[in-house]
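Example record

Each entry pairs one chain with its bound ligand, zinc ion.
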Amino acid sequence: MLLRIFLASLVSVAATNGQQEPGTPTTNGLPSPSSSSSSSSSSSSSSSSSSPSPSPSPSSSPPPLLLVSFDGFRADYLQRYHMPNLELLYRGGVLVEELTNVFTTKTFPNHYSLVTGLYAESHGMMASKMYDAETNKTFSLMDDKDPFWWNEAEPLWVRALDSNYSTAAAMWPGSDVAIRNRTATHFLPYNSSVTFAERLGNISAWLKGSEQDGGVIFAALYWEEPDRSGHMFGPDNTTAMAKALKEVDDNVGLLVSELRRAGLWGHINVVVTSDHGMTQCSAQRLIRLDDCLDPHNYTLVDLAPVTALIPTQDPEKVFSLLDKCHPHMTAYQKKALPERLHYRNNRRVQPIILIADEGWLIIQQGDKLPTLGNHGYDNTLPSMHAFLAASGPGFRQGYRTAGMKSVDVYPLMCHLLGVPPAPNNGSLAQARCILSGEGCVDVALVAGVVVGVLLLLTAVTCLFGLMKPRRARGPVPFQRLQLEEEDDDDDEPLLG
Ligand SMILES: [Zn+2]
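Structure tokens for the complex follow.
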């Protein structure tokens, strides 16, 4: 009975959740457009394209949303390093300690997943280097502007244009590409020498808007650290990483103070997150392809830590050689890639994929270690996970949760903006827990309570089971003696 009452109350909570509609746009603290902005707007590098319809009036708009990515921010940096500004941000908002990202755990696939809610096989941005056999096109981080590679999905800064919103993106991967013929209303073409303060200055000005042009509803901001230091020094170099993370934290402080100065802080929703983590590599953990296979037998598309190659000789033979090449490398034929990776159903996946174990790197030959730190590995590895911190009127205050999926960030952002999400792989079920004024079922808590109740019921049942024979102890000897009497007539009854 206890269990039945408990389960009935659970069903009732779940049903209540299911009835909650995405947030209706509310009157909020959208900043009044100002004709002048003291932000450092780097007009030389800012551009704008696509002329969406005028933005809706501020009174009908939800709070704007700023999405910030600090590239390569491994989840456990938060526990290992002191970051007072970031801590202040999530203490007043929410912290998701581990954000499970998508495979491959590389920069472009994961940044595109954050703004589309799709796994790599669905948005088509599979890795840092790609090849498309049908068009004979190649993609690399140095040559990434062809919309062909991005057009399988539509990032939020494009999607929100259809809701008559203006949007902005500062150096977020893909933000300077005309995806399905459109860019954000404002964007900065990628230039690694543009400082964080300059990027932030533009974002702040675009969020604030002007008298003629209302502020943008969604802005995305990208920064290269701590990824750059993680590659260069390795995440185990605590001196170098402490320095890099101090700079990142200073930038978080700069972000908050700039938003305060612009009158935006507290009136906009801010999400600070990352694309992936980082793991330590070593010259003692190299896997050389040429030790296993003649280089003339394959064409290399991408290398480490996930290698994509096309056999030029008998594919089965090439696969068989690679399959037994190294104990710390797993070879997959495309058709056999595990479903959980969501990395099979796209023509940009090459016939053979090799995945190195954590901390191992695949090279073709030699002894040269490419980088001291790397990422790209299996997305179930905690070292590959990022974090998420958020603050603003849409979020709970002082709330902390253990985990979430990065594909859930997109439906969460669409919900906050009242933008209809495109079909995606994410869900609001878990993400809802971090929103203010939302009820949610904490799956871990519910599972714990269910297990606890079941254990209690089992204990009570056992206790009754133990007590019953004790109560019945009187008749037992009698019954036994009766039986024994039947079995052996020579036994004398013990009871008189
Ligand atoms: Zn990255």
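The longest strand covers residues 94-100.
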